[in-house]
Amino acid sequence: MQAMFDAAPASDPSPLQQSDAFARALNALGTPPLRLEDGTLALHRKIGPLSVHMITRPGVETPETLRDLARGMKVRGPVLLAPDRPMPLNRIGALPLVSPSTVAQLDLTPDEKTLFAGLHQKWRNRLRHAQSQKLRVTRQNMPDDPGHWMLQADLVQQHQRGYRSWPLALTLAYGRANPGQAKLFTAFWGREPVAALLILRHGSGATYHISHTRASGRLVSAHTLLLWSAIQWAKSKGVQQLELGTFDTEENAGLARFKLGTGARPHRLGGTWLWWPPLTSLLRPLARLDRELMQGG
Known about the structure:
This protein folds into two domains: 33-100 and 269-294, no CATH class; 103-267, Gcn5-related N-acetyltransferase (GNAT) (Aminopeptidase). The chain is of the alpha+beta class. The longest helix is centred in the last third of the chain and has 15 residues, at 222-236. The strands form two sheets. A seven-stranded mixed sheet has the order 7-8-9-10-11-6-12, with helices on both faces. A six-stranded mixed sheet has the order 1-2-3-4-13-5. Helix 1 crosses helix 6 (168-177) and helix 4 packs across helix 8. It has helices spanning 20-29, 63-72, 112-117, 121-131, 149-161, 168-177, 215-219, 222-236, 253-260, 280-289, 291-294, and strands at 34-35, 41-47, 50-56, 79-82, 95-98, 102-107, 136-141, 182-189, 192-202, 205-213, 241-247, 265-268, 272-275.
């Protein structure tokens, strides 16, 4: 079985959660992951008195292989399994907890001219609009500053919209542990920073991590210009694939159009499942109930 981490072939980039760069960030934060025999990473957390492990987006092809990975940890508590694609984990007695989400993945192996041609017409129009606004774009390593305006704006946005992203400390630890791999792109309109975008590079892949655009930045399509600048940078560094994060065509159609407008392809993940051998016989009937939901129909 092929391990999914930074040593994987350039044509098959690892997800961020299975990269050596992510492991280094966790180690720097003082919360080291478990490294299984095949290189797969697993996280360990305490939820009250309960010890919980989680395997996120491992490079496995079958439920049985994922079960064997979980067994190989030899832990007593429950294990959360979040495969990289839909698979019937009810076969191994796992219970579905969270239905699958979809991420946008942009292939960066074509040349830049082809990538530009692959942009949706409206996306190209917004890019040209931004390019005509005399915006200044800067690129730098992410400052090790928890008070940075973009990070603080993102925390406010998380609270307002009711979602949670990485802990701020983990984002900063990623930059410290992986010098030059956390790139901050900022658009200035005059002296004012109107938009910012943070890209995390990991091996032959990269991931869109955090962004924020102020009202003035939206007027000049600054976010579009920043993402195109990030695409150009990642391409120049030999990145094979840029993951643009999750999207939901029903809950946020505008964000979905923006991400897919780059030419990115949708990639459906496998949801989150609970696997706990002592309860396998009890969970198996419940797991069958949601099999269609977790496999995307």
